[in-house]
Amino acid sequence: MPRRKAVTLQTIADELGLTIHTVSKALRGLPGMAESTRKLVIDRARALGYRTKEQEAGIAAERIPWAQTRPRRFAMLIGDSAFHRLQMEGVRLRLNELGHSLAPLLVPYELAGERELEEWLARNELFFADGLFLTAALPEWMEAALLRLELPKVLLNYPPDLAEVDSVIWDVEYAVQRAVQELQRHGHRRILYVGDIASLRGFRLRWEAFLRSARQPALQETPTSPEAHVTTSTADRAVWMEQIRQRLSEGGYTAVLSTIPDRAEWVGVAADFLGLARPRDLSLIAMENEANPHIAHVSRPLLLVREAGERAAELMLRRLANPLLPYEHVRLRGGFHAGSTLGPPRSDAD
User: Fold this and answer.
1) How many CA atoms lie within 13 A of 257 on its CB side?
2) Domains, the chain
3) What is the dihedral of CA 60, 66, 69, 71, to 10 degrees?
4) Could you give the 3-state DSSP secondary structure of residue 217?
5) Interaxial angle between packed helices 264-273 and 237-250, expressed in degrees from 0 to 180 and rounded to the nearest 10
6) How many contiguous H segments (helices) and E segments (strands) does the chain have?
7) Could you tell me how far CA 212 lies from the centroid of its own chain?
8) Which of 15-19, 49-53, 134-138, 156-160 has the lowest mean pLDDT?
9) Angstrom distance (rounded) from CA 72 to CA 131
10) Is the peptide bond before 279 cis (omega within 30 degrees of 0)?
11) Alpha helices in the chain (DSSP H)
């Protein structure tokens, strides 16, 4: 990676075929350009190791140590899914930029208890890591045991009550509320909630956020009983999709909020079975961790999973350099992708 002084705005502009003015605007976050161009500039600047004075000042203000300090080696427990890889990409990218390394390890779901977990940690030399990143979707007993370890930790999840740990999360509560707001703004009054509400902490928080939104006077037609929605696990897909078909055919719903990633495609299949076109007959908003090529057109709140990984890396380095600072919980709020599955409810005259 080139040293900071070897790279200038002109270097980036020449490589991308842009003007210095455009590059400068992109890096300073100024309006007046396509977001694709801005992302292109930012990604290239990061790859070249270029930082603006404002970025340097921001890192200093956050008390994040520079790479001139001793390189650190961190570990991260991840699952075998695109969701976990997104988190890991963000952590690794930010650590590499600041001169440190990351060793990912698959979560040992097969372990039966804390003694086996401790043996597994020892075999993988995690006690010698400079810090540990804990991802969302860890079994709760395992997460609790790992949070008791003495080494520095950052949790990429909503923290348990009373947990003394730095944490960062893409704000799913805000995303649910934003989705409901968009449906309400388009005239929907009866919304079907689709998603497991029990198995994970984040799933429970989604449902609670939906209930808070549904209690608005404008949404009084939306039921707040779990039995009126599709809130069970997807372990038996056939049973789960039959529940969706029943609710859509009998419940008078004009919109669906699908809150579990990679499930909106199934909702679409159930709607197609009933002949419900989107958005003419049924609006659909999905909570996806990233753009899904199978349903690229779906309307969705933006979940900042990769960005949460980057922020987690900064929190870890900040904690190492300043161990007496108070713990922080950071929530990242994204925007909303309009897509093409959101519209007004169909009137009787249509």
Assistant:
1) 30
2) 4-61 (1.10.260.40), 73-170+303-333 (3.40.50.2300), 172-302 (3.40.50.2300)
3) 140
4) helix
5) 60
6) 12, 11
7) 21
8) 49-53
9) 9
10) yes
11) 9-16, 20-28, 35-48, 53-61, 82-97, 114-123, 140-147, 172-185, 201-214, 237-250, 264-273, 305-321
On whether the CB atoms of residues 153 and 132 are closer than 8 A, the answer is yes
Q: What is the rounded (10 degree) CA torsion for 248, 253, 255, 257?
A: -70
Instruction: Using the structure block, give the residue that is written with the tokens 């949070």.
Output: 147
Report the predicted TM-score, pTM, of the whole model to 2 decimal places: 0.79
Structure tokens at 101: 């390394």
Please list the alpha-helical segments (H only) found in 264-304: 264-273
Helix (H/G/I), strand (E/B), else coil: 73: strand
Each residue's pLDDT tens digit, 222-232: 999 999 999 98
Q: How far apart are the first and last CA of the chain?
A: 60
Summarised one tens digit per residue, pLDDT across range 166-220 is 999 999 999 999 999 999 999 999 999 999 998 888 899 999 999 999 999 999 9
* Higher-confidence position of 239 and 1: 239
- Which residues are CB-contacts of 230 (< 8 A; sequence separation ≥ 6)? 192, 193, 194, 195, 240, 243, 244, 247
**The residue type at 95:** L
Residue 67: pLDDT over 80: no
Residues 103 and 78 sit within 8 Å (Cβ to Cβ): no
Task: Round to whole Å and give the CA distance between 83 and 80.
Answer: 8
| CA-atom Rg of the chain in angstroms | 23
Helix (H, G, I), strand (E, B) or coil at 244: helix
Could you tell me if 251 and 192 are in contact, meaning their C-beta atoms sit under 8 angstroms apart?
A: yes
Predicted local distance difference test score (pLDDT) of residue 4: 45
Residue 342 sits at the vertex; the CA angle it makes with 339 and 346, to the nearest 5 degrees, is 150
DSSP structure class, residue 230:
B
| DSSP state at residue 66 | P
C-alpha span between 179 and 74 (Å, rounded): 36
